[in-house]
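SAMPLE LOG
Freezer: B-3
Tube label: C17
Construct: single chain, 196 aa
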Amino acid sequence: MANDRICGNNVIMVSGPKHCGKTTLVEQFVAFAAGQGLCMAGILARGLWRDNLRTGFDLINLSSGHCTPLARRRDQLHPQHRLIFDFLPDGMQAGLEALAADACRAADMVVVDEVGRLEARGQGWAPCINALLTLDKPLIILVVRLNCIQQIGDLFAICGAPVIDAGKSGAFDQLFDTARRIRPAKFSFSRPQPLF
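STRUCTURE (predicted):
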């Protein structure tokens, strides 16, 4: 499934320990970049919580802002794919549409949240990621589960992509500086004063 692009030349991976704020970091970065006039595409998977337990995810289409239920917690691991969440057909379809190459071609930045075990097996968003990596214009941010970084890097031939640890202090600044290094013309504006 790996493509022939130069290793990681337009990709940033955001990772870190479980529940460290990967999606929150990228959501803040998207809001800041969009506020500077950049065109966004892709998806965020916003976690849902009840009584300190993650109960599911809603999918946010970054082009339209539309929210679709993506996954809900099961009582037990699924007997086939061994995941604790059931992925809902409407949410998966909404994600596939939001991540289609034609929907992302004109964007300045495309986000894929989250990239994990399904994608490491070539499922989930994997076919979309392969197509996105053929696009020249957008900066691509992949929110990757910490235990899948090596597999994802190998699978998509992005082994040289920078990895931002969302759990570390200064992650927002590091993400901004890395985006500016990869796409200097698009990220020519100043980074915000430290707020995050």
